[in-house]
Amino acid sequence: MNRAEIEAKVKDFLINELEIEEENIFPDAKLKDDMGIDSLDFVDIVVIVERNFGFKIKAEEMVGVNTYAKFCDYIENKIK
Amino acid sequence: MKRVVITGMGIWSCLGTSIEEVKDSLYNGKSGIGIEEDRLKYGYQSALTGIVKKPVLKGLIDRHLRRGLSEEAEYAFMASSEAFRMAGIDESYLDANEVGCIFGNDSSAKPVIEAAKIMDEKHDTELLGQSFIFQAMNSTVTMNLSTIFRLKGANFTISAACASGSHSIGLAYMLIRNGLQDVVLCGGAQETNLYSMASFDALGAFSKNMDNPAEASRPFDRDRDGLVPSGGAAALILEDYDHAIARGATIIAEVTGYGFSSNGTSVISQPSDEGCLRAMKRAMEDAGVTASDIDYINAHATSTKQGDMFEAMAIDKLFRGEHALVSSTKSMTGHECWMAGASEVVYSIIMMQNNFVAPNINLKNRDEFSEHLNLAAETVDTEINTVLSNSFGFGGTNSALVIKKFV
Question: Residue B407 pLDDT > 90, yes or no?
């Protein structure tokens, strides 16, 4: 899966499952402040990522993953 | 003691999703029952169910507030929004005042079963997501409504089988009457999904008259073959009379009596005429009325032989020779279970406001126990000032409410 495909999948679940407005999804968008993702959303994101990318997010690996771009980087690195 | 009035109500049922639509269904004796084929494929004995429209909440509530809503909580949100609107209670009122929330609910099968299926497959709670817990608890309705409307008062759920909705009104009434709350949102909610009724269907208590869904629910009729499960939600705003007057609210009815009892017998599924009677008597004593004051009895009668029989015996003991008309709106709605005690108060108030008694449809040949009851087989145009609403449930829980027209 290349970067574009990863981003397409991430965007798709952010828009369709978390109902985040497309205009609020951009590389430097802060997951919490710009996209409104809260701690309970992360519980769902673990499930969605497992379903879409086949691995389980570990909370300790998410330290510093606070923007859309960094989130996609994290997924890209995990499925390399 | 405070007077307790009703200043708002909302309904989301198989008879309609607005007061006006439900009024027309009640007046015209229109059944809300249909067939859900999936139930047979899943293994139910009967595919009959009340057909309840699914609300669309996207756009109405932020997703953070929506994600914990079970099916029945969604229905309850719709009914409660309408009840608040009718009562003239808006966001600014809720921010500045203490409003309680008590609902009847006694199951939330779908999220429980769906979560169990995931656990059986994945064996990992981290793959469940966050919504199931808020949807799966019996208090799903009150926890969600209290959060969505940011309520600050009493916040709990009554689980009392098919009397849950009625007890929730009774308890709200007691809190207000004793000066503990000024305003309480109360009601009942009932899920209708595929999983919701399987264990009830297991008892063989459901009608199998699938060729004639509209004729399947026939309380007091000797040719009945069981009840039809149904659902939705009903909400009422109960309020201290002085408080309602002070804020200029329109009062639509008054709750004047609540009676409860437990059968004291040892068969979990069997009703008791004595238990029903004690609840009715207690409610009427509380209201300071006698049998001759009651104009209409909204019977619990679900269309099962035993249930109808014991209630008919109880009503007969108390009301033979009196003028009170009797009907079971379950003939049209099916058995709305945890919601029924609240929805039937809403239906009764609609009748009270519009001067009619809704028919006990499908009553062609009454059984031997109901022959002395003033059953309304057809719609009766008549003034109703005082209503007795009965609700009885598994385990012998009984509730009766007396509702009066506000004058």
Answer: no
